[in-house]
Amino acid sequence: MHPAVAGGTSAETARWRDLNHNGRLDPYEDHRLPIDRRVDDLLARMTLEEKVGTMMHGNLPATDTLGHSVTGYDLAATEKLILGSDVTSFITRISVSPDVMARQNNAVQQIAARGRLGIPVTISTDPRNHFQAVFGASTQGGGFSLWPETLGLAAIGDTALVRRFGDIARREYRAVGIHMALSPQADLATEPRWPRVTATFGSDPALVSRMAGSYVEGFQGSPTGLRPDGVATVTKHWAGYGAEPEGFDAHNYYGRFAKLDQASFRRHVAAFEGALRARTAGIMPTYAILRGVSVGGKPLEPVAAGFSRQMLTTLLRGEMKFRGLIVSDWAITNDCPAACTAPTAAQPQERAAIGTPWGVETLSKQDRFVKGIAAGIDQFGGVADSNIVIAAVKAGRITPARIEQSARRVLRLKFELGLFDAPFVDEEAAARIVGDPATQSEGQRAQRRAQVLLENRDTALPVAARGRKVWLYKVDPAVARAHGFVVVARPQDAEVAILRVDAPSEKLHPFHFFGSRQNEGRLDFRDGDPDYEAIKKAARAVPTIVAINLDRPAILTNIRDKAAALIATFGASDDAVLDVVTGRARAEGHLPFALPSSMASVERQDPASSDDSAAPLYPFGYRFKDR
User: Disordered: where is this region (predicted)?
Assistant: First the structure.
């Protein structure tokens, strides 16, 4: 554990850190003073370079190029960013044990403490408490309590549970030295083929608003804003991101447009109201260029929201009265070269070719920064290009007052989080807090509650497991045996079959960095699909129970007649699924979106409208009830 650096001579000033190493208690170091007074004093001491540095939200370097190290950070490279470029906000993507993460984050803070003014680092993360792990969306590992995806929390529909989840995750994050959650995702899931459906709270604006608001309250520690022991939330992606034609995601050049009309746009905006009421600390704008929308009485300029003054200043800060931090999504000022727009097998898109400057592709990097700052961006995600912004200020393209406005928001958040007074964490306590069996079990109970029973023919469930012969597909045999089953090698030798399958998908853009990592395309099961062939094989021989993980709204029309019981999951362990199958736990969830009946109906629907495919197989809110 790292104690605060002591200074002063009286009991009143015994707890302070001599951040600027001058031997005196300066106002910004004095925890007794109001935050605004401390911010004013610090800003008066900062150079232009230091203020601009606060506007960069970089990637903590690690031993692999994507930052997903299982050992730790590249501290030499980190030192160059903090002490050389004055960057004081970073995302972490490492996946290590809690004590190691605490130790690594303390090492980052030690570097920052050596800086001229000792400004502490704000460390952010994508979600860590769920099953999905996709670069740029979520991270897994590190011993954090494991909960269903946010879709599963929406399926339960219990705002108190979401607050409880946020409270537990808050304590886990702070224990390892993480201060900011780049979540929740308040996007409305209106296009069923969209790869990012799984991290939303579903398709209903009112439900999304309630869930996102409760999420913010839990993470930040209060329904009225951020507490010093809270985790600042950055709610995303403002707004309309879920309305992607064909579900093609705006991380990719081919998915850079979203299509809405004025009425549907207002529903997408309404989904953010709960998070805004809970005073989310930050908002992240969408990558997408919105078509068909007007703001302030004028059609939107055809640029991504991070470059749109109408979206950020007129609507978000003006109409919605948001006063917090606006953090851009990652890499919006980077170039998008040929390997980004049209990658090939010979030239696939690698990390170096990631850029998302949608609508401003022809502008220079400096022009993009200038436009983003004019639109209302306070911090730029995934970059550390301070020198470009400094040059723009010196050229008179950005005023020093505008830079100070954003620096003030960044610094105020650091003070609200208590980082100037206590940036270090107890490395020994981290493992106890993150690995607490009681909180781990709460996540496991939620995995069970979040499951949705779709079909239960002839009361196939619950299954009496003891001594029952079972054929398994994608289920751990050891877990089945622990439940009392006898595992057999062939369906024809079994009394029941239990299968876990995934929603169908395709890799339509295998050479794009994100497209190769995302589930795109069709939602229906077809002959030749391994999961579908396994279902048919089992159903020909024995009563079959199918648990399908719905990361997107799958089409189950040709599955329903083959399954004696059909369960929807949204992130659940084998143990959680088998507890529901055997009646040890009850599936309490309701569908957080409708499930379409055919691909033809999906293709005809409006990507911006909720649950509007014709004749859905299962409607929004559905749960099987014994007849």
Answer: 598-627
